Amino acid sequence: MEGISCGSGWILTFMATLHRLRGWLSRTLITWATHLSAPAPASMPPPPGRRDSTAVTTAPLPGTAPGPAPAPRASQHAPLALFSPSSREPLSVEDAVLTRSMVLLKREAGDSLAALGAAHALVTSARLSQVQHVRERVERGEEKPEALASLAADYQGWQNDQVRLFDAMALVLRMSVPSATTLELVDPQLHEQARAHLASLSAEYQRGLLLEQFRDTPLGS
Fold first, then answer.
1. 117-170 per-position pLDDT tens digit
2. What is the three-class DSSP state of 156?
3. Measured between alpha carbons, how far is 188 from 184 in angstroms, rounded to an integer?
4. Which of 147, 165, 170, 178 could form a disulfide with 117 if both were Cys (CB 3.0 to 4.6 A apart)?
């Protein structure tokens, strides 16, 4: 019995240590991911022990209560919320065009189209299987021809969109782009006009997204 109790105690100690190790590892990974996803600071902070000569600190006057603490920024989220699509900030077309090279933009567009095309192909193939299944049921008299016609029309729509997706992906992959950012390829004298044009293009894209969103939103929701 003494040997069994010693063995059980060793197992419980090992499980407790393993649990603490897993907790430490998860907290470390979350901390790393938070630092990686946070935006880079605009300027380097002063080293410890040195006071910035440009910083001005104002102390409260005698007899007055200190002011309220500054409210946290709305863009700050909990570490786990940073990985939630609903909490992630939307892609800014202007920021992407001004900060990323055209090669990177092309690769991201190709990746997104490939993922969307693959997902679309799975649904399209499933629609085709349903059409074949319903056709057999219609031939046996178990389904009405109207059900087959409706399902076939739905499949035809998915197939047409599938062709457009693969055409767009092939066009992006065949496109030749230089390894430079947009403004590096534009005359510096035209940067102001280029930024204004980019702002109008971004606004038109956002307007299209809003129209698509409101079109799919039922009235009264």
1. 999 999 999 999 999 999 999 999 999 999 999 999 999 999 999 999 999 999
2. helix
3. 8
4. 165
